Amino acid sequence: VQLVESGGGLVQPGGFLRLSCATSGFSFSSAAxxxxxQPEGKGLEWVSRIYRDGVTYYADSVKGRFTISRDNAKNTVxxxxxxxxxxxxxxxxxxxxxxxSSSGYSWGQGxxxxxxx
Length: 117
What we know:
Layout: E1 2-6, E2 9-11, E3 17-24, E4 33-38, E5 45-50, E6 56-58, E7 66-71, E8 76-81, E9 90-97, E10 105-107, E11 111-115
Parallel strand pairs: 2-11
Antiparallel strand pairs: 1-3, 3-8, 4-5, 4-9, 5-6, 7-8, 9-10, 9-11
């Protein structure tokens, strides 16, 4: 299983970014995927998940601002982040549901998102 995030960076408050997670090594179309984030010095927080049938979940803190999507032809999951706030600053991790693993998920290496003026 390989998960490679991209698209992070520095953006001003109110701005937008689109994160991508390119995957390989498993049947992407059958997998539940998601994004979690970890602000510096804090714990991991789930941001959003998308299941193989397209059903989505969002944390209350990002509802209405973030949109998760998947392209099964490209084996890629996306996170469109709009109206970014300083409190969205974190390392964002792509995740694949992996039953039987220690955390229940496989993780990418993360991409830094910094929201600051």
